[in-house]
């Protein structure tokens, strides 16, 4: 069913089915001392570290030849925080050992690399809002499959008739699916209808340009990459990610292949297909990332408006 990457998909689905109930249980009872602020100002919780340990342990055991590049660095976890993380895990799973083989950058020897964001949208997670458990496999810096869970999926956002956890699966040259916890799948490859709507992520003033230019009334804002799956479902048609710094591969690769396989177009702010770099970033993503549903002509109309907004409001020239 999942083409050339059936083993990889089945392995990560199995891991996700372990991680999903764990994260939901942690979210329900999370305490303030189980959350800390990182140097970049973003939040991290015990769930981030515990989930990354579960995913990396599973990949190490079941796909032993693959490398892993994860967002959280277990070596930066102080002893008190680490003790709290260990309490969440089976006695035979040492989070430090599970994550010790994580790579820090992509070298020529790193042919197959899993990129992981264990809790994407931690700001939402800590207030019982939406989050994703994200993974994607890159072969020579090219995304070939992704398996990403939306534990608090609500059908009102996607039209997918699954209330609760959904695992979104994308496989190059095979297709895109939504899977429930029982393993039932829905083919997502071509949405039957595409609705007008703007998914927000980043600087609101530029996004207001898109809202006005394309007469968009429906605005959806949530703190994780789950917005990519709303777009791919056809419930919105514009998703603009606007940051002033380069984005990390683990924030983008786990949804962008899915969008493309559902008929969407994904480019950086200059209009080029996304390119991942050896330092784990998305090239030119400091000029924005644009994802649309509606065809090539529509995409480049939206891109032109986004570029105008970036230039006028932020003084960033995205045209090359």
UniProtKB/TrEMBL annotation:
Stored InterPro entries: Inositol_monoP_superfamily, Inositol_monophosphatase-like
Family, similarity comment: Belongs to the inositol monophosphatase superfamily.
One MF term in the entry's GO annotations: 3'(2'),5'-bisphosphate nucleotidase activity
Cofactor(s) it depends on: Mg(2+)
Keyword Hydrolase: yes
Pfam family, one: Inositol_P
Protein name in UniProt: Inositol monophosphatase family protein
Listed GO biological process terms: sulfate assimilation
Residue sites binding Mg(2+) per the record: 71, 117, 119-120, 251
UniProt keyword Metal-binding, yes or no: yes
UniProt keywords, alphabetically: Hydrolase, Magnesium, Metal-binding
